[in-house]
From TrEMBL:
<keyword id="KW-0325">Glycoprotein</keyword>
<keyword id="KW-1003">Cell membrane</keyword>
<keyword id="KW-1133">Transmembrane helix</keyword>
<feature type="transmembrane region" description="Helical">
    <location>
        <begin position="73"/>
        <end position="99"/>
    </location>
</feature>
<keyword id="KW-0472">Membrane</keyword>
<keyword id="KW-0812">Transmembrane</keyword>
<feature type="transmembrane region" description="Helical">
    <location>
        <begin position="240"/>
        <end position="259"/>
    </location>
</feature>
<keyword id="KW-0807">Transducer</keyword>
<feature type="transmembrane region" description="Helical">
    <location>
        <begin position="193"/>
        <end position="219"/>
    </location>
</feature>
<feature type="transmembrane region" description="Helical">
    <location>
        <begin position="271"/>
        <end position="293"/>
    </location>
</feature>
<feature type="transmembrane region" description="Helical">
    <location>
        <begin position="41"/>
        <end position="66"/>
    </location>
</feature>
<dbReference type="InterPro" id="IPR017452">
    <property type="entry name" value="GPCR_Rhodpsn_7TM"/>
</dbReference>
<comment type="similarity">
    <text>Belongs to the G-protein coupled receptor 1 family.</text>
</comment>
<dbReference type="InterPro" id="IPR000276">
    <property type="entry name" value="GPCR_Rhodpsn"/>
</dbReference>
<dbReference type="Pfam" id="PF00001">
    <property type="entry name" value="7tm_1"/>
</dbReference>
<feature type="transmembrane region" description="Helical">
    <location>
        <begin position="149"/>
        <end position="173"/>
    </location>
</feature>
<keyword id="KW-0297">G-protein coupled receptor</keyword>
């Protein structure tokens, strides 16, 4: 896409800077310059990427500078925040590359970064779901060295898989030489897009099953604690509502894009692709709110970092295994 700017002055010639030769080229007539057309959808994605980057940078900073936030749960939240941070930066870089450095290699690197980042985001959400399930199913043995080791192994495995997925377009798994096999997200091939979409559907199905088990265990715990029955019933009901909201949000953001990736290809109108990609990226805007900023320990650290104190009405109730 052209990156030449429209000149509205009355001057007939201007000097054009040649980025490749790092010198001024000969003067050209302004009538030969074409206006730079920027898609509002690309602007929206860039703004979304900026918001994603800012939110998740805050989460990572809080986790990094707070020594008490080192439990397995916070390791997974940090991994999710890092994945979403990369996704946000990827959206910003993709915008810059499209309008300034539109080359095949840059396109492959940009798309590879986005694939790796968003794949890591989805798999980290699944890992957090698994962690929540284990914290209830094995409540007595959850806070052990074995759990910590399992968490780090899970995080390393997730990132190895996602980095591999991100490298595939750069290593030749792309459709730059065969446009007929392109998916809705060029240069990803149609087959690769279908595999990623089906994998997402499997991840979502597994999350639904795990959250169903979490709800069953939480209700059973609430019934077993007779002394705190009323309190636990209220807490559990609130937790189930929260889980429902998490699943609905995740599905609303990613399901349209996943389904569209399966049925459509590069011949379909781009507006449909943008209309499904934008909600998917918004999931990375919502993730810090759901998984980080709602956490009492992170809230406390955020209050201390911003104000140097904790509000008097801040809840000090310890979290239990029934708090889902």
């Amino acid at each position: 896409m052209s990156n030449q700017l429209q000149n509205t002055s009355s001057v007939n010639t201007v000097g054009v800077w040649n980025f490749q030769d790092a010198r001024n080229s000969s003067p050209v007539h302004t009538a030969d310059l074409q206006p730079l057309t920027v898609s509002p959808w690309d602007i929206a994605l860039c703004v979304t990427g900026t918001l994603i980057s800012c939110e998740n940078a805050i989460v990572i900073a809080i986790l990094f500078y707070t020594p008490t936030l080192r439990a397995p749960m916070f390791v997974l939240i940090g991994s999710l925040a890092f994945a979403d941070l990369l996704a946000g930066l990827g959206l910003i870089l993709n915008f810059i590359f499209i309008y300034m450095f539109d080359t095949e290699f840059v396109t492959l690197v940009s798309v590879g970064l986005l694939i790796a980042a968003f794949s890591a985001s989805i798999l980290n959400i699944l890992a957090i779901t698994v962690d929540r399930y284990l914290s209830l199913y094995n409540a007595l043995t959850y806070n052990t060295e074995r759990t910590v080791t399992f968490t780090y192994v899970m995080v390393v495995f997730i990132w190895l898989v996602c980095i591999t997925l991100g490298l595939l377009p750069v290593l030749g798994w792309n459709c730059l030489q065969d446009e007929a096999h392109c998916s809705i997200c060029r240069p990803v091939t149609k087959n690769n897009a279908v595999v990623l979409a089906v994998t997402f559907l499997l991840v979502f199905a597994l999350m639904m099953q795990l959250y169903l088990q979490i709800c069953k265990i939480a209700f059973r715990h609430a019934q077993q604690i007779a002394v705190q029955h009323q309190f636990m019933a209220i807490s559990t009901t609130k937790g189930v509502s929260t889980l429902s909201a998490i699943l609905c949000t995740f599905a609303a953001c990613w399901m349209p894009f996943a389904m569209y990736s399966i049925v459509a290809d590069s011949r379909y109108p781009m507006i449909y692709t943008y209309a499904t990609v934008l909600p998917a990226t918004c999931n990375s805007v919502i993730n810090p709110i759901i998984y980080a900023f709602r956490n009492p320990d992170i809230q406390k650290s955020l209050w201390l970092a911003c104000c140097g104190c904790v509000p008097a009405n801040f809840s000090q109730r310890p979290r239990t295994s029934s708090d889902v």
